[in-house]
Amino acid sequence: xxxxxxxxxxxxxxFTVVLIASGFFAGVNLKLFSVISQQTGINYNATSPFYxxxxxxxxxxxxxxxxxxxxxxxxxxxxxxxxxxxLFLFVMYAxxxxxxxxxxxxxxxxxxxxxxxxLAVFSxxxxxxxxxxxxxxxxxxxxxxxxxxxxxxxxxxSAIISLYLNIITALILIAVISVYDYISxxxxxxxxxxxxxxxxxxxxxxxxxxxxxxxxxxFLGGGDMAFPAILADEFFLHYSLLSGVFAIVGAVIxxxxxxxxxxxxxxxxxxxxxxxxxxxxxxLFFLIKFI
Length: 291
Fold this sequence. Notes:
With 291 residues, this protein is mostly helical. It has one domain (5-290). Helices cover 76% and strands 3% of the residues. Helix 2 crosses helix 7 and helix 9 packs antiparallel against helix 10 (270-290).
């Protein structure tokens, strides 16, 4: 996918911001989970990470893909649009819930067991803010507004998922997604069908349009941002800051290979390059560490 250098660098910059922001958001909310557990007795880690891994692969990837492909085949575009709106609303709710709890608990030193008016206001905003953001996104947001909310979307998804996995399950997830991405683009090619169905729709990725005569567009899907962020988050949270940095560097180099070495105008499975490069750089990290 050889493209305009400025656009490629901009996309790499956005990609890096998503990976770093996801790690920060996940770290803050891991601490939040600890506070909630202490004050309410709720244990968020009671379920095995392998259960969440299977759930993500089936309910979060395979089943939705099959449903959307079926809807595309029968040209039920309105139903797809409704599903997109519901998904966006759900993720914005999760983002608002955690973000507002972060603000209430940490900067304001709130007590989750308190019945104060401040807690009531924050609880109301948890339900109002997602609706406002969703309405703005699909009704009024321009190109830049949608890209900003898309970044929030990807950061939220990756950070939230990483709280329920661990390093082993994250490694398995990235391996599975990398292979799946290659198969879906080059063998079954159903990912190309999905891309065509969503062409012109800003939801689900970051797209940058070159200001040239032919206006070539480069597009990076949300999964290509969220999945690498999940792996980096797990190493940030459960191993060391430096190991997470190596995972991020590997992801950025993997995407750079696609952007700068791929053939112009051809679609490539980004995770097929990003995933292996993350593994390679994590391997390099441990090699340096133990030499």
